[in-house]
Write a structure and sequence with these properties.
Length: about 475
């Protein structure tokens, strides 16, 4: 096996670097500001941090203020209809910024732009200077240069030829929490999901590049590091020597530091004993795990093309719990998938009761153009979807409340996120399994680990004192 073709070729990198020089000649001394808005998942967030890094290298200052920005990039998501509607509404909103400031540059990128039909739609908006899908981020210098020099607008969906580029600088939003993509794309083609179409086939980064990135984060005092991939269990299958995610965990665990290591996301069909053991044996792996269920019905799972049944799913759950005492689990569930009967939905409730998740992300099925499920007959009516959604949320809320009640009196280690938005003197923090803990303090411990004694809990959060 060869790694040829996996990376953006050197001559293309040199071409972009020449564009970057020309952009810097234009931006130099002008104090230009850029604003990047992220509308998707953690991978989308990680991409935005690279886009921001690239913009800094082009001479922009990245700001949190969209009103005065000289360049705005909207990083879109296509996972559900709601996400696409949000993106369109932001594009509409920034049309007005451009009307006020005609020199402003507006770019749109991300998963939604990797779809031909959406690209065709965005081309019709004359105020958008360029748009690109998830595989063309390394061409940002060229796109910005063309927009600044009022060249021909560029629209590149590019969902097939997606290569890894290690040469894009990253500007992290947080000084203590970091995303590290270990792989891109997905090969699974769950019948409801748009991701394989907009992010291409699985491509793994080289272990040496990942470890170097993590080592640097640890040396810089990062406290929470998440290894990202649509299915981290497939990591390395496309690489020489077939390194695994377990190998990465072991290697990272040899580093000296003080941090939590998280993984996002695993596919139950591929979760291996080797990985579960690596988590159990690592001093850094947080004692929590996200294992998407999607549905508790074998018949629905089959139509979703998930390649596991509930027996297999529960065997992974049991192994995780047996080898990691006290581990907490979270999951994703879709309600109202085509053909889902009340009986199927009951099976989902059964699994939720059996596993007792710490929390669940519940989604109403949203048909995505081009995916097999969107063409299935028996789409579930909206009122039934909503009713099931509410029942599932109620069940989970009562379980979450029990968990939070049981925490009262215990002392937990938390990572402090900063001041609570609407409450002066109150800080927000998170436990290793992502539970929110509020506490009062005169001192600012943002970005640090501290211990909190829990005094009270409700459905969504815990409260305590230092
Ligand atoms: N790769 C991850 C999922 C990424 S998408 C995994 O396989 O676990 C995050 C979640 O969005 C999915 O787990 C699924 O629950 C939900 N989702 C994906 N497509 C959806 C759709 N068309 N409608 C509703 N929810 C969807
Ligand atoms: Fe989508 Fe399935 Fe791939 Fe997850 S594993 S990204 S749900 S196709
Ligand atoms: Fe993430 Fe949305 Fe793309 S969930 S992978 S940004 S479609």
């Amino acid at each position: 096996m060869t790694e040829n073709g996996k990376f953006v070729p050197m001559d293309e990198i040199a071409r972009q670097s020449a564009f970057a020089d020309k952009v810097r000649e234009i931006t130099e001394g002008k104090g230009l500001c850029a604003y990047v808005i992220t509308l998707g998942c953690q991978q989308n967030e990680a991409d935005s941090e690279r886009i921001s890094g690239a913009l800094v290298s082009l001479g922009y200052t990245v700001t949190e203020d969209d009103s005065s920005a000289d360049l705005i990039i909207i990083n879109t998501c296509a996972i559900r209809e709601h996400a696409e509607r949000r993106a369109l509404s932001f594009i509409g909103r920034y049309k007005h910024n451009k009307a006020k400031n005609p020199d402003m540059v507006l770019g749109v990128c991300g998963c939604m732009m990797a779809q031909e039909h959406r690209m065709k739609q965005v081309i019709t908006f004359p105020y958008v200077d360029f748009a690109f899908g998830t595989g063309s981020m390394h061409r940002l210098p060229e796109f910005v240069y063309t927009a600044l020099t009022k060249g021909k607008r560029k629209f590149i969906a590019d969902p097939d030829k997606m290569q890894i580029c290690e040469d894009i600088p990253v500007l992290r939003k947080s000084g203590y929490k970091a995303w590290v993509s270990i792989m891109y794309g997905c090969n699974n083609f769950c019948t409801y999901c748009i991701v394989p179409y907009v992010r291409g086939r699985e491509r793994s980064r080289l272990p040496k590049d990942i470890i170097a990135e993590v080592r640097e984060l640890v040396e810089n005092g990062y406290r929470d590091i998440t290894l990202l991939g649509q299915n981290v269990n497939s990591y390395g299958k496309d690489l020489e020597g077939k390194p695994t995610v377990a190998d990465l965990i072991k290697e990272i665990s040899r580093l000296e530091g003080d941090f939590w290591l998280h993984l996002m996301t695993s596919h139950p069909k591929d979760a291996t004993t080797e990985m579960i053991d690596a988590i159990a044996n690592s001093k850094y792996c947080a004692n929590c795990f996200h294992l998407p269920l999607q549905s508790g019905s074998d018949a629905v799972l089959k139509r979703m093309n998930r390649h596991y049944d509930i027996e297999r799913y529960l065997s992974v759950v049991d192994e995780l719990k047996a080898k990691n005492p006290g581990i907490t689990l979270t999951t994703d569930i879709i309600v109202g998938f085509p053909g889902e009967t009340e009986e199927d939905f009951q099976r989902t409730l059964d699994v939720v009761k059996r596993v007792r998740y710490d929390s669940i992300y519940t989604f109403i099925y949203s048909p995505r153009k081009g995916t097999p499920a969107s063409e299935m007959e028996e789409q579930v009516p909206e009122d039934i979807q909503k009713e099931r959604f509410n029942r599932l949320v109620d069940l989970q809320n009562s379980i979450s409340k029990d968990f939070n009640d049981a925490m009262v009196g215990k002392t937990v280690k938390v990572l402090v996120d900063g001041k609570s938005k609407n409450n002066d003197g109150v800080y927000m923090s998170r436990t290793e399994n992502n539970r929110i803990v509020h506490f009062e303090s005169d001192e600012d411990y943002t970005g640090q680990f501290i211990n909190i004694k829990i005094t009270r809990g409700d459905t969504f959060a815990l409260y305590g004192e230092i």
